[in-house]
Amino acid sequence: MVLNELQKTFESRKHNLINILENQNEGLDLSKQHQLFGAIKEIDNFLRVLEHLREQENNDELNVVLSNQVNEKFKDKLSDLFKK
To answer: What total number of domains does the chain contain?
Structure first.
């Protein structure tokens, strides 16, 4: 949940910065334009990290589910052995 909220917040910030660059009306000097461009790139990198963390989180959940399924099968086999 937290990752989704962070992603929405930073995507919104990125779009705001892009809008400032696109609609600047010659009001921003070159150094400010470079600062905005750098901030956009940093946000892009941060969003990629968030995506990676989300993928890891999904993989971890899948591994837990799979390991639980394996444990269930093992428990069934073990209980069958004790029944004999």
So the answer is: 1
